[in-house]
Write a structure and sequence with these properties.
The complex is a heterodimer of chains A (85) and B (600). Chain A contains three helices and no strands. Chain A has 85 residues and is mainly α. Chain A has one domain. In chain A, helix 2 runs antiparallel to helix 3. The longest helix of chain A has 33 residues. The radius of gyration of chain A is 19 Å and the shape is rod-shaped. The relative contact order of chain A is 0.12. Chain B has 600 residues and is mainly α. Chain B folds into two domains: 315 residues, no CATH class; 243 residues, Methane Monooxygenase Hydroxylase, Chain G, domain 1 (Up-down Bundle), CATH 1.20.58. Helices cover 77% and strands 1% of the residues of chain B. Chain B contains 25 helices and two strands. Chain B is elongated and about 110 Å long. Classes of the chains: A mainly alpha (85), B mainly alpha (600). The interface between A and B is medium-sized, with 25 and 28 residues.
Chain lengths: 85, 600
């Protein structure tokens, strides 16, 4: 490992705020992955659903997960921006 | 009076002892430093309990053997069976683990504590451990001054280990110097009288120091300095094992029935093991000699032989008692029954569950879950809904002619019986919890407090709604009846939705899925407003009826929204590691408004 990278890692380890931010980023990434899987599975269900009422409910859920993912992606971008500053 | 005199007498005796013998002073200082080290170690491990212990415990207590393994490993790492027992009582009180799992942990802790004797006899006495203690203290203090709680925790652990080593060093020095002035070995007593006398001494020393580990270090260092005989040291070790239960008993005094049962199991295990060891002590000594020969340990190395003895008698106890865990649970549940009060009382909130942040949060979460379930029943009953606990299905209650049946019990009475005392206890518990001011835990407790407030609000709104519901559900006007039935159907659908999502048991994903119910609630509010306007405009209902229906649909909206928001907190708390991320993505009013605008 190069000296620069090593010192940055050490600094990250010793800086409690930086470590906390990294934890938040990692948590958000895990959650976004879960939400992406959920959205995919809902889309797959919607493709084979012919009942109009159930299809409506599925559409609502897809819209909701999509909006939640959008919020999550924006939050992750913010966290990454803070890290670079 | 006697209690008030206790401390001054102890201090005077100690001061007198220090004045008479500088060696006694060194040994006492060693014990004090050792105990301080244990406190520091405990403080350090507490810094790492934020979610970690909870996660480990859930996986590690699924079977008797796993619980045993957890007790063994955690005690070997933390070097304190008392601490692990207190943790087990605390986790049991908070409802995190079952009694059988707690008993398994306590059995394992007894086995894990034997590693201490091996460490001290095999390493502590053979190596100059004071040389390791000093750098540990320096590094520990440097870390203690760092801002992060994890670094502080690591610092406390290093300092704790350093003090433990330093304490052992002073005890060793003290006993060696003591030998030149007084030979304590002259007071040895052989045979069974000696066994009983020294066993009682071991119990007394451990009760005073509240640490069998400290007693064991004293025994080993005294044995190494030949201040006590090998035979008496064995009896002292047995006594220390009984004395160690005192910490668990003290901790269980204010614990729930579960905590008391676990402390009882701890006492039974240690006393039974001690009685068997006393009865078979001479056979055990032969077994130790044989094992020492097999392990290549010199027959004169009494400290290591003591470690073997300590391991054998604890292992024997575990092997004998392990098949009896289930009968022990049955016995303890019969001897220490759960009191059934007239008004529902908290089951998980106790000073034992307030010991650690994880257990405190779990206790509040479990109590909140209890009042949430009770609230669903009260609301369902108040709105004339039937709720089947086994199939988790909700439907409108009607009589054989199709007329609605509203619950007969008063909402106030049900609130007083099932909710009020638990709710008050939760609020007091949260405000009394010292670490509630720490970031992270504070946020979770804050959310749980909010959830409780929302649950109580939902009940109050149902009470307001019930008045008109009872009046208009028997009205001759079919349109107003239909309007109120729509409200009932809506609340039933929301409760059903919550129960369905809960069945998925998918942590924060359940929490996020509940946002869909919030969208339904928003939609219902808009559609109800439109319907009421149309009903009034077409003269189907009077303006007075319309205003009542509008007010009550607002109450229904609040009931539903409060229930869903409280459920989000509860479901999310099941996966604390992703909770803050999930909170950041849940949809607020304006997000939901945008989605509804797009779909319409």
């Amino acid at each position: 490992m190069k000296l620069g990278k090593l010192t940055r890692k050490l600094e990250d380890f010793l800086d409690a705020d930086a470590r906390e931010r990294k934890e938040h980023r990692d948590e958000m990434k895990v959650l976004l992955r879960k939400m992406k899987d959920k959205e995919k599975s809902l889309l797959a269900k919607a493709l084979v659903e012919f009942d109009e009422k159930k299809l409506d409910a599925l559409r609502k859920q897809i819209d909701m997960v999509h909006a939640q993912r959008k919020k999550g992606i924006n939050a992750l971008k913010e966290l990454t921006k803070k890290r670079k500053q | 009076m006697l209690k008030r005199l206790q401390l001054p007498v102890v201090l005077l005796l100690l001061a007198g002892g220090f004045w008479l013998s500088p060696d006694f002073k060194t040994i006492s200082a060693g014990v004090a430093i050792f105990l301080f080290g244990m406190l520091s170690l405990e403080q350090g491990f507490n810094a790492f309990t934020g979610g970690l212990l909870e996660r480990v415990l859930k996986r590690a207590t699924s079977s008797h053997l796993r619980s045993l393994g957890f007790g063994l490993v955690s005690t070997a790492i933390m070097q304190s069976s008392s601490l692990v027992s207190v943790i087990a009582i605390s986790f049991l009180s908070a409802g995190l683990i079952s009694l059988a799992a707690g008993i398994g942990i306590v059995f394992g802790a007894n086995l894990g504590t034997t590693t201490g004797a091996w460490l001290i006899a095999g390493f502590g006495l053979k190596v100059d451990i004071a040389r390791y203690a000093l750098p540990m203290l320096v590094f520990g203090i440097v870390l203690l001054f760092q801002p992060g709680s994890k670094l502080k925790g690591a610092g406390s652990i290093l300092c704790g280990l350093g003090f433990l080593f330093l304490g052992i060093h002073y005890m060793k020095e003290g006993f060696e110097a003591f030998k030149s002035t007084i030979d304590l070995a002259r007071y040895s007593v052989s045979g069974y009288p000696g066994v009983f006398l020294f066993m009682l001494t071991g119990i007394f020393a451990t009760v005073v120091m509240q640490s069998s580990h400290a007693t064991l270090v004293l025994i080993i260092t005294a044995l190494a300095a030949q201040q006590i005989t090998y035979e008496n040291a064995l009896a002292l070790a047995i006594g220390a094992n009984i004395g160690t239960t005192i910490t668990a008993m003290l901790s269980a005094l204010n614990a729930t029935a579960g905590g008391k049962r676990l402390a009882g199991a701890h006492l039974i295990f240690n006393v039974v093991t001690a009685l068997i060891s006393v009865a078979l002590i001479f056979q055990l000594v032969e077994l130790v000699d044989w094992s020492a020969a097999k392990l290549g340990i010199a027959s004169t190395d009494y400290t290591l032989k003591l470690a073997i003895f300590h391991t054998i008698f604890n292992l024997g106890g575990v092997l004998i008692m392990l098949p009896f865990i289930t009968p022990l649970v049955v016995l303890l549940e019969r001897v220490i029954p759960e009191r059934v009060p007239e008004v529902d009382q908290p089951r998980y909130l106790s000073s034992a569950s307030a010991e650690f942040p994880d257990t405190a949060i779990e206790a509040v979460k479990n109590e909140t879950q209890r009042i949430f379930d009770e609230a669903l029943d009260i609301i369902a009953s108040g709105m004339g809904l039937l709720k089947d606990a086994s199939s988790s299905k909700v439907w409108l209650a009607t009589d054989f002619k199709g007329k609605p049946l509203l619950g007969e019990g008063s909402i106030d009475a049900m609130y007083e019986k099932h909710i009020k005392s638990i709710y008050s206890a939760i609020l007091v518990f949260i405000s009394d919890t010292e670490f509630s001011r720490k970031e992270g835990h504070a946020a979770t407790l804050q959310w749980l407090r909010e959830a409780n407030v929302q649950i109580v609000e939902a009940i109050k709104d149902t009470k307001h709604l019930q008045k008109n519901l009872q009046r208009f559900m028997v009205s001759g006007n079919p349109d107003i009846r239909h309007g109120y039935n729509t409200i009932r159907q809506h609340v039933a659908a929301i409760i059903q939705g919550i129960l369905d999502i809960r069945l998925q048991e998918d942590g924060v994903m359940d929490m996020l899925a509940l946002d869909a119910l919030k969208l339904t609630i928003d939609e219902h509010r808009t559609s109800m407003a439109d319907e009421v306007t149309w009903l009034i405009a077409s003269r189907k209902i009077s303006a007075q009826m319309g205003s009542s229906l509008l007010n009550d649909s607002a109450y229904a909206h609040d009931v539903s929204m409060n229930l869903v928001t409280a459920a989000q907190t509860l479901f999310g708390a099941a996966e604390p590691e992703l909770l803050s991320a999930a909170r950041a993505v849940t949809l607020d009013d304006s997000d939901r408004g945008e989605i509804l605008d797009e779909t319409t």
